[in-house]
Amino acid sequence: MPHPFLPYSKHSSPSFNKLYRPVEKILPKTPVLESKGDRPLKMTFEDQLKALIFYHLEEHSSGRELLQVLKQDDFARQYIAPKDGIEKSSFFEAINTRGLEQLQFVYHSLCREAKIVLPDRYAHLGNLFAIDGSLIDAVLSMTWADYRKDSKKAKLHLGFDINRGIPSKLHLTDGKAGERPFVSQILDPGQTGVCDRGYQDHDLFISLQIEGKSFIIRIKAGTTKTMVRQYDVQPGDIVFYDAEVILGTNQNNTLTQTPVRVVGYRVSGVDYWIATDRRDLTAEQVADAYKLRWEIESFFAWWKRHLKVYHLIARSRYGLMVQIYAGLITYLLLTIYCQKVHKERVSIKRVRELRIQIQNELRQSGCYPDDYFLKKQNHARLHAKT
Questions:
Q1: Which of 9, 135, 307, 354 has minimal Cβ neighbours within 10 Å of its Cβ?
Q2: CB-based contact 212:126 (threshold 8 Å)
Q3: Which domain holds residue 275?
Q4: Are both 343 and 266 inside the same structural domain?
Q5: Domain assignment present for 114
Q6: DSSP string, 306-367
Q7: pTM, whole model, 2 decimals?
Q8: What is the tally of structural domains in the chain?
């Protein structure tokens, strides 16, 4: 018997079902999406969610392209699109005005499942969360996305669970918004924020410790460091400095109230100075933990390139949040799928395999003629070249 939230279709794909299965378990607990007026919804929350997952999975580049596929592609029309189809106005109204609460519920539920399914790769270093901001190109009509006079951008502030390779908490602002205030909002007590030099703030170092949160943050090389106590370092090791210091000076009112630990290490001729309150780690482990900050950079690049998350289908702040959560949900589903099926991290190789597997299953079911897939593959090759 088909799942009550999944209408039976002869064109359904076992591989797509396997990818989507974690959502099936969450949907019955998800807050109900209700119409704000007397008219019934033309697009249920599940319709909206499946369409957005399909959008990112298939690397569509615009809402118009997705709508065309939902109308003309047999699988998408019968398995992804609403039962009676969806018109352009109804689709964009749904994206820009509803579903965010439900998407947030699904997202946080998937985060909890991913933490159970995925291995804790750096347990010896504690709960590491890289924090960074990513600019999203906007259009001039997006007046809320303030950046520069002739440029509009939004900014995504994201925490990234380094140990499991998945996103965590997020905030969306205009492009001009500062990044440091979001460190405390993203971190929970017992977690360690790993950040680059843009997050150096001596008051932040103090407040995080008061809140029971830790930090491993790179500081500028020229920062004044008044040594309180020095630790031994091994000659010839990458670590050349390890000490308790007071940061800053009284003159510019940036003096830290209590000592922080600073570790200096050198890689390929570049010196890195890392401030931290983690005294349970060796200096080498502090260096290793900071090197892992690159994980969030790799995530942003992969997420934007292969799931087309920053190809906007909404221009309101609400609609952009809907799209971002949908893109993160798609990434989480792929991460869980790759771990369960292949026992490895998500990769574009495995995502492509999944796409091909879905096509093969549809071909075998008689959903599409062979020439459809030839045209689809040729289109993909041309898209990849451009």
A1: 135
A2: no
A3: 197-292
A4: no
A5: no
A6: HH-TTS-S--SHHHHHHHHHHHHHHHHHHHHHHHHHHSS---HHHHHHHHHHHHHHHHHTTS
A7: 0.89
A8: 2
